[in-house]
Design a protein that fits this description.
Rossmann fold; alpha/beta; 2 domains; globular
Length: about 300
Amino acid sequence: MKTLISIVGTTGIGKTKLAIDLAKILDTEIVSCDSRQFFRDMEIGTAAPTQQEMSSVKHHFVGNLSVVNDYSIGKFEVDALEKINELFSKKDTVIMVGGSMMYEKAVLVGLNDLPEANEENQQKLQAVLSEKGMEGLRRILAELDPIYFEKVDIDNPRRLLRAIDVIWQTGKKYSELIKTPTHKRNFNVIRIGIAAPREIIYEKINDRVMKMMENGLLQEVENLLPYQDLQSLKTVGYTELFKYLNGEWELEFAVSEIQKNSRRFAKRQLTWYRKEEDINWVDYQNSYQESLSLLQQFNIKI
């Protein structure tokens, strides 16, 4: 049996570095399950691996799409499994890394058999979004499924629209529908999570946002201004700076909102991962050495 090593953790905690360090020593390649890093021209705001990092270890599903492309979790499940199985033909282990929880879940256990989007429901929800904004969608989902509301990225309209649509169609809570694993994979999985105290996570997030600004995030967002209404760009770091560029917010406030919304997303990641029982946690200060020890316990050849 081949082994997929999945590295998880909150935003900004050091997943990319750990994945690269492990891939080097295991002589393997990296599959990204970070849904924001799939898109080109968003490298700074999504903290995508640098060209130097990707030249040291081959990465897949980073910058492979245009922001105008429509891409779903279901499509990623098919594409990622195809790539992973291709890599297993020449490698005993493959590294997967990313903080997009549902995308990781799709690869590890598969998606549940959920209905296709209902056009009438989508039109109703788009009307809510236009009239009442994200807060309108949040209120609907919080009332219908408070458990999923605690986990979902509430700044991602696509996630909210999808969950509400499915609930309306099935009459069942989305959190219950996605709970049961659907497929047995033909490879072993070792999940490694990078842990840190919450105050450290928040401090790292705040610092990283400031570094992104220093590295040219504002210019990156300005270049994408013509595409601001696309779903791929309705994400933290971009929506806030679009509001600055459109004259709605001051720059200092927009940056503080990026920090706040990034911290809020990290909190939701923690809520999700805390309920996962198969994650092997390593400390952020010594994640590489602890991961090596862990992999040896699983009889992975280093």
